[in-house]
């Protein structure tokens, strides 16, 4: 089991702005996020509440990550998820103690997998998808 004892509200409030500063400056992620987010201060508060809810079970986040991502589905690719996760790993390794970084990275990977399944997995044409994958 991961040790989340080094994760608290203060560490999340420090981590999230650092991470999203890097996202905003990133050549791949920046254009998507900068076009999608109108109020960065409010967005950072929401994201900090999200991670507080996910890692500390505080229940602070009130929203739907799936709905937020679905609004931008036309611009999101699996490669962007990979880039986000790579940047998340880099920043959490720099900012957090190693056990906390590992816990945050593992949770992010599970969330990304769930979001990608919902965004990209099509039930309407499973045979065609299987054929395309093997071609």
Describe this structure in words.
The chain is mainly alpha-helical. The chain has one domain: Globins (Globin-like), CATH 1.10.490. Helices cover 72% and strands 0% of the residues. It contains seven helices and no strands. It has helices at 9-25, 30-36, 40-56, 65-70, 78-95, 98-120, 126-134. The chain is globular, with a radius of gyration of 16 Å. Residues 127-132 have low confidence and may be disordered.
What percent of residues are in strands? under 5%
For the record, the count of structural domains works out to 1
Structural class based on helices, strands and sheet pairing: mainly alpha
- CATH fold-level assignment: Globin-like
DSSP summary: helix tally: 7
The outline comes out as globular
Fourth-tier CATH superfamily name: Globins
The separation of the N and C termini measures: 40 Å
pLDDT below 50 for ≥5 consecutive residues: which ranges? 127-132
Helix content estimate: over 70%
Overall pLDDT level = 87
Helix-strand topology string: HHHHHHH
CATH class category name: Mainly Alpha
Radius of gyration: 16 Å
How many β strands by DSSP? 0
The CATH architecture is: Orthogonal Bundle
Largest β-sheet summary = none
Protein name: Preprotein translocase subunit TatC
GO molecular function: heme binding; oxygen binding
InterPro entries: Globin-like_sf, Globin/Proto
């Amino acid at each position: 089991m991961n040790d989340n004892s080094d994760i608290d509200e203060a560490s999340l409030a420090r981590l999230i702005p650092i991470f999203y500063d890097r996202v905003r400056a990133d050549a791949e992620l920046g254009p998507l996020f900068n076009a999608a987010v109108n109020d960065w201060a409010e967005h950072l508060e929401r994201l900090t509440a999200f991670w507080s809810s996910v890692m500390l079970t505080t229940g602070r986040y009130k929203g739907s990550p799936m709905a937020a991502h679905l609004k931008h589905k036309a611009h999101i690719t699996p490669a962007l998820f990979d880039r986000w996760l790579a940047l998340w790993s880099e920043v959490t390794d720099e900012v957090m103690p190693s056990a906390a970084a590992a816990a945050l990275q593992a949770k992010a990977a599970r969330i990304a997998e769930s979001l990608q399944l919902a965004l990209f997995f099509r039930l309407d044409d499973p045979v065609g998808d299987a054929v395309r994958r093997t071609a």
